[in-house]
Amino acid sequence: MPEEEPHSIRIHLDRLLAARGMTLTELSAQVGITVVNLSVLKNGRAKAVRFSTLSRLCEVLECQPGDLISHDPAGPAHPTGPAGPA
Questions:
Q1: Are 24 and 35 in contact (CB under 8 A)?
Q2: Distance separating alpha carbons of residues 62 and 10, to the nearest angstrom
Q3: Is the pLDDT of residue 15 over 60?
Q4: Full set of structural domains in the chain with CATH
């Protein structure tokens, strides 16, 4: 199995959920995406995000894509570690 390619994209789903007092389960129900798939995204293990998914997340979280995703040129995200600072 090939090793995951490192990247410097950070997902700030934890931060947005905390700011809105929302759980991953609540977000899952409102967006129509499984908790498992949202967890993969939240933990920085997603390899891609569909624009339709990004649109639904932004609608439910009342945010812009830049609030949810950022680029950190300081270094690659650890494939199994946190998706960025909280």
A1: yes
A2: 19
A3: yes
A4: 9-71 (1.10.260.40)
